[in-house]
Design goal:
Blueprint: H1 22-37, H2 44-55, H3 59-71, H4 85-100, H5 107-119, H6 124-153
Protein backbone atom coordinates (compact mmCIF):
# COMPACT_ATOMS: atom_id res chain seq x y z
CA UNK A 1 0.00 0.00 0.00
CA UNK A 2 1.49 3.34 -0.98
CA UNK A 3 1.85 6.10 1.58
CA UNK A 4 -0.48 9.06 1.17
CA UNK A 5 1.18 12.48 1.26
CA UNK A 6 -1.87 14.33 2.56
CA UNK A 7 -4.89 13.77 4.75
CA UNK A 8 -7.48 11.42 3.38
CA UNK A 9 -10.11 11.89 6.07
CA UNK A 10 -9.69 15.45 7.37
CA UNK A 11 -12.22 16.78 4.88
CA UNK A 12 -14.84 14.56 6.58
CA UNK A 13 -14.32 16.38 9.87
CA UNK A 14 -17.53 16.77 11.86
CA UNK A 15 -16.70 19.21 14.63
CA UNK A 16 -15.95 22.84 13.95
CA UNK A 17 -13.43 24.29 16.37
CA UNK A 18 -15.39 27.55 16.39
CA UNK A 19 -18.22 25.61 18.08
CA UNK A 20 -15.98 24.58 20.99
CA UNK A 21 -15.23 26.57 24.12
CA UNK A 22 -11.65 26.94 25.42
CA UNK A 23 -11.68 23.81 27.60
CA UNK A 24 -13.20 21.76 24.79
CA UNK A 25 -10.61 23.05 22.29
CA UNK A 26 -7.72 22.16 24.61
CA UNK A 27 -9.22 18.73 25.27
CA UNK A 28 -9.75 18.12 21.54
CA UNK A 29 -6.17 19.14 20.68
CA UNK A 30 -4.83 16.92 23.48
CA UNK A 31 -6.97 14.02 22.25
CA UNK A 32 -5.76 14.53 18.66
CA UNK A 33 -2.15 14.41 19.90
CA UNK A 34 -2.90 11.23 21.84
CA UNK A 35 -4.71 9.68 18.90
CA UNK A 36 -1.79 10.39 16.61
CA UNK A 37 0.95 9.04 18.89
CA UNK A 38 -0.94 6.14 20.48
CA UNK A 39 0.46 3.71 17.91
CA UNK A 40 3.96 5.29 18.07
CA UNK A 41 3.87 6.27 14.38
CA UNK A 42 2.85 9.47 12.67
CA UNK A 43 1.54 9.07 9.14
CA UNK A 44 1.73 11.86 6.57
CA UNK A 45 -2.06 12.15 6.65
CA UNK A 46 -1.97 12.89 10.37
CA UNK A 47 0.28 15.90 9.82
CA UNK A 48 -2.67 18.04 8.64
CA UNK A 49 -4.51 17.21 11.88
CA UNK A 50 -1.44 18.31 13.86
CA UNK A 51 -1.14 21.52 11.85
CA UNK A 52 -4.83 22.37 12.25
CA UNK A 53 -4.71 21.68 15.99
CA UNK A 54 -1.95 24.23 16.47
CA UNK A 55 -4.20 27.04 15.21
CA UNK A 56 -6.55 26.88 18.16
CA UNK A 57 -4.00 26.65 20.97
CA UNK A 58 -2.09 29.35 22.81
CA UNK A 59 1.68 29.49 22.38
CA UNK A 60 2.24 27.76 25.73
CA UNK A 61 -0.31 25.05 24.89
CA UNK A 62 1.32 24.54 21.45
CA UNK A 63 4.68 23.84 23.10
CA UNK A 64 3.13 21.21 25.39
CA UNK A 65 1.21 19.73 22.46
CA UNK A 66 4.31 19.51 20.26
CA UNK A 67 6.32 18.00 23.13
CA UNK A 68 3.84 15.08 23.25
CA UNK A 69 3.97 14.68 19.47
CA UNK A 70 7.78 14.77 19.31
CA UNK A 71 8.25 12.37 22.22
CA UNK A 72 5.36 10.21 20.99
CA UNK A 73 3.95 10.19 24.51
CA UNK A 74 0.21 9.92 24.96
CA UNK A 75 -0.99 12.92 26.98
CA UNK A 76 -3.47 12.36 29.82
CA UNK A 77 -7.11 13.14 29.08
CA UNK A 78 -9.34 14.51 31.80
CA UNK A 79 -13.10 13.99 31.65
CA UNK A 80 -15.26 16.70 30.09
CA UNK A 81 -18.42 16.13 32.16
CA UNK A 82 -20.39 19.14 30.91
CA UNK A 83 -19.80 18.70 27.19
CA UNK A 84 -22.87 18.75 24.96
CA UNK A 85 -23.70 15.20 23.79
CA UNK A 86 -23.72 16.25 20.11
CA UNK A 87 -20.23 17.75 20.46
CA UNK A 88 -18.99 14.66 22.30
CA UNK A 89 -20.21 12.39 19.51
CA UNK A 90 -18.67 14.54 16.77
CA UNK A 91 -15.35 14.87 18.57
CA UNK A 92 -15.20 11.11 19.06
CA UNK A 93 -15.97 10.46 15.39
CA UNK A 94 -13.22 12.92 14.42
CA UNK A 95 -10.75 11.07 16.65
CA UNK A 96 -11.56 7.87 14.78
CA UNK A 97 -10.85 9.71 11.51
CA UNK A 98 -7.46 10.79 12.91
CA UNK A 99 -6.65 7.15 13.65
CA UNK A 100 -7.73 6.06 10.18
CA UNK A 101 -5.11 8.25 8.51
CA UNK A 102 -2.48 5.51 8.75
CA UNK A 103 -4.98 3.05 7.28
CA UNK A 104 -5.22 0.72 10.23
CA UNK A 105 -6.57 0.86 13.76
CA UNK A 106 -4.46 -1.28 16.09
CA UNK A 107 -5.02 -2.37 19.68
CA UNK A 108 -3.18 0.60 21.19
CA UNK A 109 -5.31 2.99 19.14
CA UNK A 110 -8.48 1.12 20.08
CA UNK A 111 -7.57 1.36 23.77
CA UNK A 112 -6.86 5.07 23.42
CA UNK A 113 -10.19 5.66 21.63
CA UNK A 114 -12.19 3.75 24.24
CA UNK A 115 -10.50 5.76 27.02
CA UNK A 116 -11.11 9.03 25.15
CA UNK A 117 -14.74 8.05 24.64
CA UNK A 118 -15.15 7.36 28.34
CA UNK A 119 -13.77 10.80 29.21
CA UNK A 120 -16.47 12.21 26.93
CA UNK A 121 -19.11 10.13 28.74
CA UNK A 122 -19.57 7.67 25.84
CA UNK A 123 -20.25 4.03 26.68
CA UNK A 124 -17.57 1.51 25.69
CA UNK A 125 -20.00 -0.40 23.45
CA UNK A 126 -20.78 2.76 21.46
CA UNK A 127 -17.03 3.46 21.13
CA UNK A 128 -16.41 -0.05 19.84
CA UNK A 129 -19.26 0.27 17.34
CA UNK A 130 -17.63 3.34 15.80
CA UNK A 131 -14.17 1.75 15.83
CA UNK A 132 -15.61 -1.24 13.94
CA UNK A 133 -17.19 1.11 11.39
CA UNK A 134 -13.82 2.79 10.89
CA UNK A 135 -12.13 -0.59 10.44
CA UNK A 136 -14.79 -1.63 7.92
CA UNK A 137 -14.28 1.61 5.99
CA UNK A 138 -10.54 0.96 5.93
CA UNK A 139 -11.19 -2.55 4.60
CA UNK A 140 -13.23 -0.97 1.81
CA UNK A 141 -10.36 1.44 1.01
CA UNK A 142 -7.92 -1.48 0.83
CA UNK A 143 -10.28 -3.41 -1.46
CA UNK A 144 -10.68 -0.36 -3.70
CA UNK A 145 -6.93 -0.02 -4.05
CA UNK A 146 -6.53 -3.74 -4.80
CA UNK A 147 -9.26 -3.48 -7.42
CA UNK A 148 -7.51 -0.58 -9.15
CA UNK A 149 -4.18 -2.45 -9.06
CA UNK A 150 -5.79 -5.53 -10.64
CA UNK A 151 -7.41 -3.46 -13.39
CA UNK A 152 -4.09 -1.77 -14.16
CA UNK A 153 -2.42 -5.18 -14.56
CA UNK A 154 -5.25 -6.76 -16.62
CA UNK A 155 -5.34 -6.67 -20.37
CA UNK A 156 -8.39 -4.75 -21.57
CA UNK A 157 -11.32 -6.96 -22.51
CA UNK A 158 -13.90 -5.38 -24.81
Amino acid sequence: MKERPHSTFAHHRLIHVSDLNGDERRWFATAIAGAIVSDATISPGQLSWIKNSLYFLSKKERLIYLKHIKSKSVPPLNPLPNIDRDKAAKIFLDLVLVMMENFEIDTRETNFLVNAGKTLGIKEKRCMDVIHWGSALLDLFHEKERFVERIIRDEPSY
